[in-house]
Amino acid sequence: MQTKHKFNHSLFIFALMILLFSAACPLVQAQTSSNDIAFWVISNGNTEVYTMKADGSNQTNLTNNAASLLPDWSPDGSRIAFTKGNSIWVMNADGSNKTQLTNPVNNEGDERPSWSPDGSKIAFVRQTPNGGDIWVMNADGSNQVKLTTSAVDELNSDPRWSPDGTKMVFANVRNVRTSGGRGIFVMNANGSNQVRLTDDGNRPDWSPDGSKIAFVRFIGSNADIYVMNANGSSQTRITNNPALDAAPSWSPDGTKFVFVSNRDGNDEIYTMNADGSNPVRLTNNTVSDEGPRWKRQRTAAPRAVYNDFFGTGRSDYLLFDRSNTAIRWDILQNPITSPSQIRHTFWGLSASDFPAVGDYDGDLKMDVGVWRPGTSANPQSYFYIQRSSDPNPNAINAQPWGLPTDRPAFGDYDGDGKDDFAVTRNESGKVAWYILPSGGGSFRRTEFGAAGDLVIPYHGSDFNNDGRDDLIVVRLSSNGDLTFYIGDASTGQLILAQQWGNTKVTNSGSVYLFYGNYLGDSRADVVIYYDTCQSNPNCDVAGTFWFKETGSSNYTVTKFGVPFNSQTFTGDFPMEGDFDGDGKFDITVYRFQNKTFYSLLSSNGQLRAQYFDGNSAAAPSSSATANTLENVLEPSRGKSIPAGAFKALVITKQPDGTFKFERANDFYLKR
Fold first, then answer.
1. Which pTM value belongs to this model?
2. Which of the residues 469, 603, 611, 639 could staple to 582 if both were Cys, CB 3.0 to 4.6 A apart?
3. Cβ(507)–Cβ(534) under 8 Å?
């Protein structure tokens, strides 16, 4: 079939020409902490929130004000929720940016916050003069919903989420005034299906794998820590001390507890093995140390490799054609087999649909998909997914989501290994992200960005290695500088603000933005590509890739291939993918003239050329598709260091054909 142009789906969706953006809006950046345990201290009638390392060192006061207690970590460790006065507050893990979330009235008081595993919600206890119940709210304090309904003098307290976020365990006190009738219950995360597990006990905590629950049981005046299965069976005592042992919190790997004990005469914090052996004292002072919480470490679900449709662990070669009514997808399996495996499918409408490639079923294979905006007559918009796990390859999996003026935004925002259905919408001068988990559950709305920002999200945009894709917007300044804002998908909290690239460098040429894990550190990196300088085709910056190393001042500059010309549609177009399966994206271009992908493989520095015209992986004998690529690498060295220059990583070609990576403090590309 003859087509005008065939190109990878990222051509106009993810490697985007820069448009004009709006002015900046203020964002607050979250701070992570090297400490592992949060706790609170009672001293001279005052309470403060502290953190420390797992060995008890680096004890740090975060609040330095009265009446702060009962801390709980956010799942990514960047923030801490706590009780201050009669309200729930949050702060960054370093103690900055303290923000009040609740403001109870009528002699009510809010306490004991508990963060959901995906970071989108916080459960808490709202006490009244006659008892109290468990409530839940969004992580920004909005949408406060009551989950339990207690009788007079009854208190439901100590909520803790199951690791998968579908349930909560909590303690019930039937008679607040006598503290009698304690029991541990479990319920669905929406408050339904409440089931009793014990007839006594408090301070429950779910194990990281969800199989067990620790709790405290009082026998007379003594308190000890017990562990039971998540269904209440096999209740086992793991401390047996005449002192009070309480407030257990599991370590991230489930092998230890941190807890409070007065076995040495004062309330201090200890750790012990999960079977109760080897207790180790962490604090040693005259004040009372209480309520320790171990920072959880998110266990990332396995993710499909970007554009891996066959499940080989490598990106496949993808072309699609919009010249007909339906979009034609041509996918060449990588690595190449004999005979080559090529999949053809017609999926989506060329005139209206946006490609929405992702792994929506979690089988580690990418699914062909599109998002179709609705119309004025029928505004309901849809994702249409061709699931790789469906026994019927032609089955249509339709998910209604979005409005005609929305833009699709797909990624795994909850870390379950499945890409979610999402759209962005400009509302009241802000970008609102509407995310519907593909694994089930209710949608969430998160604000991040300003109206007019460019939104460029897709599968694999995890910049902080927490196992979840992040929210990304790009903003243009009046002088052409580009700033990438990276945000948490659950809370809208800023993770990183990175200025990188300038639209005026190429003198009316185009600038392309994309990102991927080029360093193999499980974090996405920001990439800028400059195409042909229209006013000066021989300018040095044309055809250069600028890779910004996330979390570092280092960057990489590589000139690779023939600069693309967006006006004539000639040259080499920049692509993304891990084509050698080493866990790193490879510098890759597609040359339209000879229908060949060229990759600089990160595993060995070798150049790979792969012909693919949509129908065949075998190049015609007349086609110039040898493993050669003109203008492969042309790094320039400046005579001086420009103001504010970063250390660069320069790639140079060696006489034997391999490539050498070297550090150069004086490297820059002349403009």
1. 0.70
2. 603
3. yes
